[in-house]
Amino acid sequence: MNEVLSVALGIGLAAACGFRVFVPMLFVSIAAKAGKLTLVPSFQWMGTDTAMIAFAIATALEVSAYYIPWLDHLLDTIATPAALVAGAVISASVFTGMDPFLRWTLAIIAGAGAAGAVQTATVVTRAASTASTGGLGNFVVATGELILSVVASFLAPFVALILIVCLIVFISRRAYKRHKVAQSVPTEAPSATS
């Protein structure tokens, strides 16, 4: 069950990387430093003072840059690959109790995939904002993305629990329906051969 929780947590944090690359990294660093989050041994560096300071500076620069109209478009071009890498790294850092090959395979597919999906949505939203407001409304989009990144990072453990419960309910319902269908199919009587 711990592995399932760590996977759900990792995917939730990876998705938050799609809004802002460094906000979830800072969250993980603070949580690990406070002893509230267990990291894979090879990622213990994320819970150090040095990493926390680096992530805080990177977060401040990233958040500030999105409020500069011409710079936010430039950031969108590099944010997508950065979000994919951050999503894979952050999810791999919390996928505890797994074989390294499975951890990285899952991190690349699920973590980078979740970050990429969210990042794509933010790029489309920013493009629509630019087209409709001439870029003047992009500060509203930037603020919304920042809020969503903070909320998603903070709530990732709770969302992970909810996702696990939903997954268990979904699997149970499907199994029950299959069982009911299997019981309702009439069996053919053996034919008599002469």
Compressed to H and E, one letter per element, the order equals HHHHHH
| Largest sheet report | none
User: What is the averaged pLDDT score?
Assistant: 86
Q: Give the proportion of residues in helices.
A: over 70%
Counted by DSSP, the helix tally is: 6
Q: Write down the overall geometry.
A: globular
Question: How is this structure best described in words?
Answer:
It is a single chain. This protein has 194 residues and is mostly helical. It has one domain. It contains six helices and no strands. The protein is globular. It starts with a helix and ends in a 10-residue tail after the last helix.
Topology, element by element:
Layout: H1 2-17, H2 22-33, H3 49-65, H4 69-94, H5 100-133, H6 138-184
Helix pairs in contact: 1-2, 1-4, 1-5, 1-6, 2-3, 2-6, 4-5, 5-6
What is shown here, in short?
It contains 6 helices and no strands.
Search tags:
194 residues, mainly alpha, globular
